[in-house]
Design goal:
Blueprint lengths: L2 E11 L4 E5 L5 H4 L5 E4 L2 E11 L2 E6 L5 H4 L6 E5 L12 H4 L3 E4 L4 E11 L2 E7 L3 E5 L5 E5 L4 E4 L14
Parallel strand pairs: 7-12
Antiparallel strand pairs: 1-2, 1-6, 2-5, 3-4, 3-6, 4-5, 7-8, 8-9, 9-10, 11-12
């Protein structure tokens, strides 16, 4: 079973064994479902209930009904089962996207070195061609993302790469 990082247990909530998970995982609705499994410290736990409270994902786990039962989970990293996510053809995990090849519409080839957040909903691709270029994920410069070919097609603006033939 392959795992994907979804967040971290930051505290408990109440006395009935509910835990607070801080997560910025983009596909929470596919991970945090009643009956699905979370992996914490190499151990699998079944989600008994789930809700959102402020910026936290609130989860209770099967067989844990008291605050004292879940204290050992504090500050632990939480993972989900990557195989059970059932992502659509347009949904790609950042960790998978890092492995994709980047092609420009004018024939240049590059690789994604990093994906980072410039703002809460604004992901930026740091792409290395002959030099580094930053491209927003929500930009029309991203022409297509192919999960089958493991490729990202981008249409860079003229002058984004120094020494570009289009520069004058």
């Amino acid at each position: 079973m392959s795992q994907v990082y979804v967040g971290k247990v930051v505290s408990t909530h109440g006395i009935r064994g509910e835990i607070k998970i801080l997560s910025d995982f983009p596909y929470k609705n596919k991970v945090f479902q009643v009956g699905k499994h979370l992996i914490i410290d190499h151990q699998s736990y079944v989600i008994r209930s789930y809700r959102v409270h402020k910026k936290f994902d609130m989860v209770t786990l099967n067989d844990y009904h008291d605050i004292n039962d879940v204290l050992f989970l504090m500050k632990k990293k939480v993972y989900g089962d990557k195989d059970s996510l059932e992502l659509s053809s347009s949904e790609v995990l950042d960790e998978d996207l890092i492995t994709y090849q980047v092609l420009t519409t004018d024939g240049k080839c590059g690789i994604i070195k990093e994906i980072f957040l410039a703002a809460p909903k604004n992901k930026i691709l740091r792409i290395l061609f002959d030099q580094e270029v930053l491209v927003p994920m929500s930009s029309p410069m991203i022409q297509s993302i192919s999960k089958e070919k493991k490729q990202v097609i981008v249409a860079l603006l003229p002058g984004m790469i120094q020494g570009d033939d289009n520069e004058n």
